[in-house]
Amino acid sequence: MTFMLDSKTWARAQFGDCDLGDKRRTKRLIKMAEQVANNPSASFSEQMETWGDLRAAYRLFDQGDVTFEAIPRPHWEQTR
Predict the structure, then answer these.
(1) How far apart are alpha carbons 79 and 24 in whole angstroms?
(2) Do the Cβ atoms of 47 and 31 come closer than 8 Å?
(3) What is the pLDDT of residue 1?
(4) pTM for this one?
C-alpha cells in the first residue's frame, strides 16, 4: 500500500507545529518546505520560487528562535 501526500499537505504535517516564536515564521517554513519538496534535487536558490522567497528564507534562518532543534522537533515527536 502506498500513501502519498501532496507537498503542501506534507509540509504542513511535518512543520506546522514548529514553535519558531511567531506564527508567520512557521507559515514561511511550511512554504519553504513545500518548495523544497517540489524540487528536491535543485540548489536552495533554485528551489525557492522567487527572489523574495529566497530572501525571506535567509531572513527566517537568521532569527534566534529558528534553530536546528526547533525545525525538526515536530517530525521527531511524530516519529516517536
Answers:
(1) 25
(2) no
(3) 58
(4) 0.88
Q: CB of 80 within 8 A of CB of 24?
A: no
- Segment-wise mean pLDDT, segments of 10 residues, the chain, 80 residues: 80 93 96 96 97 97 94 87
Contact indicator for 12, 37 with CB cutoff of 8 Å:
no
Rounded Cα distance, 13 and 44, in Å: 21
CA distance 47 to 54: 9
Cα 52 from Cα 78, distance rounded (Å): 31
Amino acid 59 reads: R
